[in-house]
Write a structure and sequence with these properties.
This protein is an alpha+beta fold. It has one domain: Alpha-Beta Plaits, CATH 3.30.70.100. About 35% of the residues lie in helices and about 30% in strands. The chain is built from four helices and five strands; from the N terminus they run βαββααβαβ. The chain has a five-stranded mixed beta sheet with strand order 2-3-1-4-5. The radius of gyration is 14 Å and the shape is globular. The model has no long low-confidence stretch (mean pLDDT about 95).
């Protein structure tokens, strides 16, 4: 059985930049929806529209690597980081050394699977 790879990213949006961030986030979600192996890519926003959580899920390590090597991370993430700060990045699962090599540049902390139930 292949193991899903999940990311949880915490973001703080710069003052006065919510609308710009929202436009970029929409483009990121639309592009990710076209990727083979992308299971979930969801932005959640605080009531004051200053803090955001991004939940990502990929079918397996290969799909996660493809995402990290693609347009979203290469083009759109830098745009998002122009209007927001990356507060934390957590990687859940066993993505393998290629994915870990990429996300370590974002300061990601990795958590291996222990127990649970998935549909």
């Amino acid at each position: 059985m292949t193991q899903a790879v999940r990311f949880v990213v915490s973001i703080t949006i710069h003052d006065g930049k919510y609308d710009e961030f929202e436009t970029i986030a929409r483009a990121m979600a639309e592009a990710t929806a076209q990727e083979d192996g992308a299971v979930a890519y969801e932005f959640f926003i605080s009531p004051d529209k200053k803090r955001c959580r991004l939940y990502e899920e990929y079918r397996d390590a290969a799909a996660a690597f493809a995402h990290l090597s693609g347009r979203v991370v290469g083009e759109l993430v830098p745009q998002a980081l122009g209007v927001a700060d990356l507060d934390s990045f957590e990687l859940l699962g066993d993505p393998g050394p290629d994915v870990i090599g990429i996300v370590s540049g974002f300061g990601a902390r990795t958590f291996g699977h222990l127990h649970g139930v998935s549909a």
